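Deviations from the work plan: none for this task. Representative record:
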Amino acid sequence: DTEVTQTPKHLVMGMTNKKSLKCEQHMGHRAMYWYKQKAKKPPELMFVYSYEKLSINESVPSRFSPECPNSSLLNLHLHALQPEDSALYLCASSQEAGTIDYGYTFGSGTRLTVV
Amino acid sequence: GNSVTQMEGPVTLSEEAFLTINCTYTATGYPSLFWYVQYPGEGLQLLLKATKADDKGSNKGFEATYRKETTSFHLEKGSVQVSDSAVYFCALSDRGNQFYFGTGTSLTVIP
């Protein structure tokens, strides 16, 4: 299995809703990442997990809450989002956080619309 | 600091034309360099990579050579197809925890 699987593919939520994005990989990668991508822009790093521990939080607002229940799963819990949070949310993984010579493997993303 | 500069798009080419997308970088140390491709509505896919100076990465007819003297990693393809229409991102890693992406170059290939 050489994929990163993200669910759901599309999500529409209201500003008072609570929802979660899910990411799963079975490649034995020990680093997992959340990125946010706005239209016609490069991905922006949000969070890095290394060996299931949060190692980087790029000053992301607390309405985004990451969770890494085990080495294969990464969640992003969403609460009280704003319309400007609408974007493509990408999950990625790599063998180790400090040795990414082989590059990331990205999921297909969740397209989030906040109404 | 680390950064990547890509040529501005969009780029429109006819099928079978030659493609060059320029990428230059600024980095401390010895970064690894990558090209990622994003097809419409999808995530990013690794297209090719090079981990040291003078390495050439290649995949699906695309090539890029890691040039330390010019701090460049230009993407080339001899004959593009309609199916190559996508956004291409140049990126570097400094062996830390993240990538540094360029702004992306949109390519449209017309029949």
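The mean pLDDT of chain B is 93.
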